[in-house]
């Protein structure tokens, strides 16, 4: 595996590979790699000749109450993890390399952001979109891989690729789960023993909702109420939100139909967990 820190060198590498007819799969990350990232990398490895991952903690997507400096970083660990998955290129630029001067323009995401977790993170997805425009132009991948754990981000990226005509295939990758259904997350370690037993009920509530919809219930409010009741009855967590939207548009539905997302967020003592399912009705 080769580590590249220069945007120009990264572009030159990709141009050469594409001229040789090789396909490039890209997994963007902010580092501190875990099993979820490995799933993305494995799929990229299976579907492309060249696999590039980026590690860049993007300051533009951190809000005023989010500590950019405190974000976990462990490059040696990340390097070992990437090498173990046969990654070809690890793109590891500095902040100065990515933002060498004050930008003369900005990317503003206007839709798909004022719901779910984005409702409380004003400007977050503007920062995500800005760095992805740069990374897509630097790496020029054929395919880009994103985890559906953050389904809202996937929706925003889908809009970005469509609106800016990027010749990139977006590959959403399913959520990686524990044996009991709990979505894998670095935050799970902060759950108490009792909360860890209860946490799989987030996914169970989503599966119950899906079954109700498949059996003919189409009222979003009634489905949301079923989910809230199940979570309240089976966990001590505080429900942050239970929401149903069209997907990837993330628009309110008067009646459930088409492709939808059902998403939940629940606050436990020291961890806020999110989960979702997407499917076609």
Description:
This protein has 281 residues and is an alpha/beta fold. The protein folds into 2 domains: 2-173, HUPs (Rossmann fold, 3-Layer(aba) Sandwich), CATH 3.40.50; 186-276, Pantoate--beta-alanine Ligase, Chain: A,domain 2 (2-Layer Sandwich), CATH 3.30.1300.10. It is built from 9 helices and 9 strands. It has helices at residues 7-19, 35-47, 75-84, 95-98, 124-139, 151-163, 193-198, 201-214, 220-234, and strands spanning 2-4, 24-29, 50-55, 89-91, 143-147, 169-173, 238-246, 259-267, 272-280. The strands form 2 sheets. The protein has a 6-stranded parallel sheet with strand order 1-4-3-2-5-6, with helices on both faces. Helix 2 (35-47) links the parallel strand 2 and strand 3 (50-55). Helix 5 crosses helix 6. The longest helix is centred in the middle third of the chain and has 16 residues, at 124-139. It is globular, with a radius of gyration of 20 Å.
By secondary-structure content and strand pairing, the structural class works out as alpha/beta
Total count of domains: 2
How many strand segments? 9
Q: Quickly count the helices.
A: 9
Give the CATH architecture of the largest domain: 3-Layer(aba) Sandwich
Q: What percent of residues are in strands?
A: 15-25%
Global Rg: 20 Å
CATH class of the largest domain: Alpha Beta
Low-confidence stretches: none
User: N-to-C terminal Cα separation, in Å?
Assistant: 43 Å
Helix content: 25-40%
Q: Largest beta sheet, briefly?
A: 6 strands, parallel
Major beta sheet, strand line-up? 1-4-3-2-5-6
Shape: globular
**Element pattern in H and E:** EHEHEHEHHEHEHHHEEE
> Can you tell me the CATH topology of the largest domain?
Rossmann fold
Q: What is the CATH homologous superfamily assignment of the largest domain? A: HUPs
* Overall residue-averaged pLDDT value: 95
């Amino acid at each position: 595996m080769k580590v590249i820190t220069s945007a120009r060198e990264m572009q030159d590498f990709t141009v050469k590979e594409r001229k040789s007819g090789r396909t490039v799969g890209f997994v963007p990350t902010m580092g501190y790699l875990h099993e979820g990232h490995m799933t993305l990398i494995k799929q990229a490895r299976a579907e492309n000749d060249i696999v590039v991952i980026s590690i860049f903690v993007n300051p533009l997507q951190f809000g005023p109450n989010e500590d950019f400096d405190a974000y976990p970083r462990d490059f040696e660990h990340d390097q070992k993890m990437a090498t173990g998955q046969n990654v070809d290129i690890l793109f590891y630029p500095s902040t100065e390399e990515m933002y060498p001067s004050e930008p003369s323009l900005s990317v503003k995401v206007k839709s798909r952001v004022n719901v779910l977790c984005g409702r409380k993170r004003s400007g977050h997805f503007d920062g995500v979109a800005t760095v992805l425009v740069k990374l897509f132009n630097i790496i020029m991948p054929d395919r880009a891989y994103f985890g559906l754990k953050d389904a809202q981000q996937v929706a925003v990226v889908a809009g970005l690729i469509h609106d800016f005509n990027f010749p990139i295939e977006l590959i959403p990758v399913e959520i990686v789960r524990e044996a009991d259904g709990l979505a894998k997350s670095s935050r799970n370690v902060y759950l108490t023993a009792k909360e860890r037993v209860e946490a799989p009920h987030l996914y169970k509530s989503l599966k119950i909702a899906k079954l109700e919809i498949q059996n003919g219930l189409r009222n979003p409010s009634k489905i949301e109420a079923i989910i809230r009741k199940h979570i309240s009855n089976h966990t001590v967590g505080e429900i942050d939100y239970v929401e149903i939207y069209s997907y990837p548009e993330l628009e309110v539905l008067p009646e459930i139909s088409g492709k939808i997302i059902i998403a939940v967020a629940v606050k436990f003592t020291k961890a806020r967990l999110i989960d979702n399912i997407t499917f076609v009705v």
